[in-house]
Design goal:
Elements: H1 2-27, H2 34-47, E1 53-55, E2 58-60, H3 65-85, H4 93-97, H5 104-127, H6 136-159, H7 161-166, H8 171-201, H9 203-212, H10 217-243, E3 247-249, E4 254-255, E5 260-261, H11 290-305, H12 311-336, E6 348-350, H13 352-387
Antiparallel strand pairs: 1-2, 3-6, 4-5
Helix pairs in contact: 1-2, 1-3, 1-5, 1-10, 2-5, 3-6, 5-6, 8-10, 8-11, 8-12, 10-12, 11-12, 11-13, 12-13
Length: about 400
């Protein structure tokens, strides 16, 4: 339980410190009190756990995934330490192989989740106001989700149970999961690089926005920090754009390689990365070929380390790994969107349904081709070695 509470408190304390720093930087402490900064930091942590807030009666449901990722990282680190601490509890590997039930990780995971949820509930009780109205249910649900998807695997890895359990899984599934992890990480890196390039190309627009806002040095620091917290969301948008379906930045809008239809936008520097309104250049339609090509390359590199001589095995590893990576990116794209303001700004999100179809199909097809090509190469190399 202490591990879960510690994993939640670490990022929370960082958010509280940043909240006080932002309060001081924006007006040198002339308005409000330090407790107002603490409340803003607590609300930021709650928003990173799916609470949403009310701003002047308008629901803001977008989750700053930067905070969520920091929370997940802290939970992973603490979860592994807790796993190492309980590794000697329960049956050993021989007893587990003989069929003895091992409840060490589930029990430790339950206590980890309890400690994390308690911190979340207390933070909501102390930081929520009638005006902001963050959702306690959202915080509990996201906290439990983090503990299930991050904390429980961390416990299994730290305690050594993951290595024992994985030995009972089909080798094809293990290989496909490794391919999916590499492909998803590569795709997110590519999307981040494209986002950075698009922002740098039009960085003058971002500077112009900052000048029109008449911000001081402290305000620039605060806006930059908020942009960093939203950067993972923007990566999800960029990846959705590269896949083809694109995303919306308001009701009735579309940003995709085939068309860019924009309306009035809020003055926020990160939006400088958006392409110009109108018909995009012809070369942007070629971006739809990028996902399957990238999947084929990643799968080929992965299978060259652990080749197989069976065509069906190579195809299955590549196709399943690609499909799993597409499903993983769909989850990120779904979490990246949400309402960010009133009216038309309630619809700011990747087109998640189409993203799922495109990502699973593109990555799965590319993985299938890459798996077959490497398997054919391995079979030919073996045949040449036998005839030499």
């Amino acid at each position: 339980m202490a591990g879960g509470a510690g994993a939640a408190l670490g990022p929370l304390l960082v958010c509280l410190a940043l909240g006080v720093s932002g309060w001081f930087l924006t007006d040198a402490g002339a308005h409000g009190t330090p407790s107002d900064g603490l409340r803003v930091g607590a609300l930021a942590w709650l928003m990173g756990h799916g609470s949403g807030v009310q701003v002047d009666g308008v629901a803001v449901t977008a989750v700053p995934l930067g905070i969520t990722l920091v929370a997940a990282w802290a939970l992973w680190r603490l979860g592994r330490r807790v796993g190492e601490a309980v590794s000697h509890h329960g049956p050993d590997a021989d007893a587990i192989s003989d069929g003895e039930r091992d409840w060490t990780v589930p029990v430790a995971g339950a206590y980890l989740a309890l400690g994390y949820v308690v911190v979340g509930v207390l933070t909501h009780a102390l930081g929520a106001t009638a005006a902001t109205a963050p959702s306690a249910g959202g915080v509990v649900a996201w906290s439990l989700g983090l503990c299930l998807l991050v904390g429980l695997p961390a416990l299994a890895v730290g305690s050594g149970r993951a290595a024992i359990w994985s030995s009972y899984l089909p080798p094809t599934l293990v290989a496909a999961a490794g391919i999916a992890r590499r492909l998803l990480a590569t795709w997110l890196l590519l999307a981040a690089l494209v986002l950075l390039a698009a922002f740098l190309v039009d960085i003058g627009t971002a500077a112009n926005v900052m000048s029109q806002l008449h911000t001081g040095a402290g305000d620039v620091v605060v806006v930059s920090a908020v942009s960093l917290l939203l950067a993972p969301n923007a990566v999800g948008f960029a990846g959705s754009y590269l896949l083809g379906p694109g995303f919306t930045v308001g009701t009735g809008t579309l940003v995709a390689p085939s068309a860019v239809v924009l309306g009035p936008l809020p003055m926020f520097p990160l939006l400088a990365a958006l392409p110009d309104n109108g018909t995009p250049p012809g070369w942007t339609t070629a971006l739809v070929a990028l996902p399957p090509v990238l999947a084929a390359v990643v799968v080929a590199r992965a299978l060259r380390r652990t080749p197989t001589l069976r065509l069906s095995e190579g195809a299955l590893r590549g196709c399943v790994g690609g499909a799993l990576a597409g499903l993983g990116f769909t989850v990120l794209a779904t979490l990246a969107g949400g309402a960010v303001g009133p009216g038309r700004m309630r619809d700011v999100a990747p087109l998640a349904g189409e993203v799922m179809v495109h990502s699973i199909a593109s990555f799965g097809l590319g993985g299938l081709v890459g798996g077959l090509l490497v398997t054919v190469w391995a079979r030919r190399a073996l045949r040449d070695a036998d005839t030499a």
